[in-house]
Design goal:
There is one protein chain. By secondary structure, the protein is of the alpha+beta class. It has a domain at about 55-180: Nuclear Transport Factor 2, Chain: A (Roll), CATH 3.10.450. It is about 25% helix and about 40% strand. The protein has 4 helices and 7 strands. It has helices at about 1-15, 60-75, 75-80, 100-110, and strands spanning about 55, 85-90, 95-100, 115-130, 135-150, 155-165, 170-180. It has a 7-stranded mixed β-sheet. Strand 2 and strand 3 form a beta hairpin. It is globular.
Length: about 180
């Protein structure tokens, strides 16, 4: 009896298992895909001003942005600005400028010159592309560990949003979180 009972239960369990159709196999879900939750049925406490809808972007854009960040880390500013568009918008804590590639290089060279050492500990990245505009972004999450000229060692958590157009960086928005001082 046991020999028949176990295979019968196994067949029932396998028959109950849901499978995806061949049409859905390998399909890439876009960000905000509503197949599991219908967004129309959700009552959000805020409405958004943006009409953009995003899907996963091109991983080659992540590589380009990471190479640019690595160039900054290694103090190779020529390689960094090689990936910049003709004009770059820089948005940092208490700073905003829309400048030429050469001016961006001068600004970033001065900034990088404040450090004796500079290291990146990368945590994560993501790339998204708008389905209804030509906007593409690479977002990075990392920790900067640096030693200022004069010897002070410090670190901050950073989140960067990098806007890309025609394969070039046209905007960098950086957000930092300082670690609390130890008491």
């Amino acid at each position: 009896m046991k020999k028949i009972f176990f295979p019968a239960i196994l067949l029932v369990l396998l028959a109950c298992n849901e499978t995806e159709s061949d049409d859905n196999l390998g399909a890439v879900k876009s960000i905000g895909d509503t197949s599991t939750t219908n967004a129309d049925n959700l009552d959000y406490p805020y409405s958004k001003t943006s009409t953009a809808n995003y899907e996963l972007g091109d991983p080659a854009q992540v590589q380009m942005v990471l190479n640019s960040l690595k160039a900054y880390e290694t103090n190779n500013l020529d390689a960094l600005v090689n990936n910049f568009g003709d004009t770059v918008e820089l948005n940092f804590d208490n700073y905003h400028a829309k400048v030429s590639r050469d001016s961006a290089k001068a600004i970033l060279t001065q900034n990088r010159g404040q450090y004796d050492s500079f290291r990146i500990n990368m945590h994560d990245w993501e790339t998204v592309k708008s389905t209804n505009t030509d906007d593409e972004y690479v977002s990075l999450w990392y920790t900067e560990i640096y030693k200022e000229k004069g010897g002070k060692l410090d670190s901050v958590n950073v989140m960067d949003d990098v806007k890309i157009k025609n394969g070039k960086i046209i905007e960098i928005s950086g957000y930092i979180r300082r670690f609390p001082t130890k008491k």
